[in-house]
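Form 7-S
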Amino acid sequence: MFTFCCVGLTSSYQKCVKMSSFSEKALMEKLGGLNNSQQSIQTMSLWLIHHRKHAKAIVKVWWGELQRAKPNKKLVFVYLANDVVQNSKKKGSEFTMEFTTVIDKAFSHVVEQCQNDRHDRTKRALEKTLNVWAQRNVFDKELLRRMKAVFTGGEVVVPPDSPEQPRTAKKAKMAEKKPKEKEKEEDVNPEKFKEILEEQDEEDQEKFNPDDMPDPEALVKSLRELENAASSDAGVREKIAKLPPEVQDISMLEKIQDKDSAENLSKMVNDACSLLTDYNDRLNKELEDRQHTFKMFHNYRLGQKLELKSAEEKLEEYKSKLAKVTSVRKELKSHIQNLPDLTLLPDVTGGLAPLPSAGDLFAIDG
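Output:
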């Protein structure tokens, strides 16, 4: 048995991956401990793919253990088969060929044994898996049709992408699709989106404190700092893209023959872990910065809307005052134009002496 440990890896790599030798007894024990968690399924899948040269025996034991499993554990066997078939394709077609011989019977068996599932969860999960297989051409179309028939009471249904699909079925599918498309178009209607945004703004403005509006300079500074964010670091992304396959593919462990090779690979993996950990930390920091900047923008926008509303109210107020002053000016001009021209009046003083001025009246005689 060979055990390889990597410090710092995530997901299923966080634990040691044990590539023990294959035996049907060991396989039955592992299947007995299989549970519905992603880690359990992926770890088991990696072990099976590592021993893909035993694909025929593996599928035989899988089918036997599936039939003996309790109803609430049968679905996880299908999930395991799905993971193994899809992830082993790059290495060979052994599992696809072997599972082809039993997968339709397995589907029928699981559906039949899980009829008491009150929420139909098992059936929905199987249908979802089947749809994925049809989209990715995991199995032959004829086999997929047979499995699909399990859900249609024995009636063979041609997959949607098949050229053999009847015209009437295509029309019916298009008829069903049109209302959905129309509904989707309505959902993204700009006017409707604008109304929703305005309603949200009204709710936010009720809770908004004008003191929370950021200074424009702080907002600009935050934007400039994002120009050097981790996602813009082409150099690090290039290093990650150039990581050797040995640190990304667990099957490469098969090529290790001695301790030196294992130590070299361990160093490469740990270096890759450090690089990825650091980059992930930077990306998390960038995410926090962008969320903070978004909040600043949101508050700045709300603050500007309040100031805009205040400015509009002032504008209306002063427009009203301007209208009043303009009206007074117009009336005053009209009134002035209607006054008589005193220069055109006759001389009514009769040659009398002019009246004394105020200074003359209060002058003190010497």
